[in-house]
Amino acid sequence: MKKIFxxxxxxxxMVFSQKSTVFFDQGNxxxxxxxxxxxxxxFRKGLKEDPDNLILKSQLALALLSQDKNDDAEIxxxxxxSKKPDxxxxxxxxxxxxxxxxxxxxxxxxxxxxxxxxxxxxxSPQYFGVNYYIARSYRKLLYREGLTxxxxxxxxxxxxxxxxxxxxxxxxxxxxxxxxxVEEKRPGKNVGKWxxxxxxxxxxxxxxxxx
Length: 211
What we know:
By secondary structure, the chain is mostly helical. The two termini are 22 Å apart. The chain is elongated. It has ten helices and no strands.
């Protein structure tokens, strides 16, 4: 699934000044053109005039993470959430930032996405997106450090929801086969953590299932 970055729906119910709207629109135009450095400059300029504008600040975080300035983005996201812990754009970008950075922090990504989960309109594209990112984060962790029984449950729940909402996605067959293998092979509740030590072997099994 492609990265979901520009989330105008997240700001649909928010109102801010005309001047800030200009900065918001200009910065997002640069983002749509993949001119992230220019977008960063616009949002920083806007924040000089309106330093408490959390919308501009969240878009600054987006511009930063889009340039792989992940540490800087994390600082900005933290500043936003210290003022408004349920600010959905910051939670979403926090998840994206930790999922996509060079050395991903999947547990932190899950934490952000789970906090955003109930805030997202179930009819919006972000709803299948949040299910995708939670499921994929858990899947990565299954190979890296293992999951508890309840974490496997959550992974399966969100993966199934993603498949339900995106039946024609290019990775749907992979997701279905992964779900099937996990349900067949997962250990019982008495096992503290389940870890798959060789992702390559599992992926080979999934390919065989597709044949």
